[in-house]
Specification:
The protein is α/β, with parallel strands linked by helices. Helices cover 48% and strands 15% of the residues. It binds 2-phosphoglycolic acid.
Length: 254
């Protein structure tokens, strides 16, 4: 059975002092939670700090992106092997902010996914439609296109090694969460796309929901049969909120 997973995406927030305060508060609050994996995805410069603070705990960590190339003349980039050096287990790829603001195309995202797997990281692949796309009825087509680009490169077995996060762009940072039913519908569609060619992979791949998840709505979202946890932005910067979300996932896993 798939366990639940809750990953915090700190985005470009934090600093040495506030990271320490956040993790000092978070560690005891998530210690002993069963049935849920808890992860924080920190900005690159803080991965060493996070590693130092979380080593040996039940809180895993990861990065928010990764370079598609393994090494070489790629100024400003960070490779998957470098992330492994700092104990990362996860790397987010294809976050909508990277797709919209930094030119990450479907093909680039697929290459990043593959690079992460090659180094032994677990990629968290973000998929999701914009408001315009939802309103014009192409949500499934958009999500299928984003998924297919990755499957084309890594196959269904490669997909089963990662995590998918459905994040409707209109719900990210807006306070406007997808209803549990809206999330479930797209999650079931994604799982169905995988099941169409690989039923085993479909049963294995965790599908997280992201977009304005908070303590107050987590329980209902995580109760949906195809929602295996969450990718949390704003609420991941608050130890009380984030740990409550992790607790909701642990309860849903029972
Ligand atoms: P949010 O962000 O929880 O602040 O909406 C989610 C995300 O971008 O991963």
């Amino acid at each position: 059975m798939r366990g639940k997973l809750v990953a915090g995406n700190w985005k470009m927030n934090g600093g040495l002092a506030s990271n320490r305060a956040l993790l000092d508060a978070l560690l005891p609050a998530v210690a002993g939670l069963d049935g849920v994996g808890c992860v924080v995805c920190a900005p690159y410069p803080y991965l060493a700090q996070v590693q130092g603070l979380l080593q040996g705990s039940n809180l895993a960590w990861g990065a928010q992106d990764v370079c598609q190339f393994d090494n070489g003349a790629y100024t400003g980039e960070v490779s998957a092997a470098m992330l492994i050096d700092f104990g990362c287990r996860y790397a987010i790829v294809g976050h909508s902010e990277r797709r919209a603001l930094f030119g990450d195309t479907d093909d680039v995202v697929a290459a990043k996914y593959q690079a992460a797997c090659r180094a032994g990281l677990t990629p968290i692949l973000c998929l999701g439609e914009t408001l315009v796309e939802r309103e014009s009825g192409v949500t499934e087509a958009v999500v299928a296109r984003q998924l297919d680009a990755v499957v084309k490169v890594v196959g269904m077995t490669g997909l089963a090694k990662g995590v998918v996060a459905y994040e409707p762009v209109w719900a990210i940072g807006t306070g406007r969460t997808a209803t549990p039913e809206q999330a479930q519908a797209v999650h079931a569609f994604v799982r169905g796309c995988v099941a169409a060619s690989d039923r085993v992979a479909a049963g294995q791949v965790p599908i997280l929901y992201g977009g304005s998840v908070k303590a107050a709505n987590a329980e209902q979202l995580f109760a949906m049969p195809d929602v295996d946890g969450g990718l949390i932005g704003g609420a991941a910067l608050n130890a009380v909120e984030f740990s409550a979300i992790c607790r909701s996932a642990a309860e849903a896993a029972r």
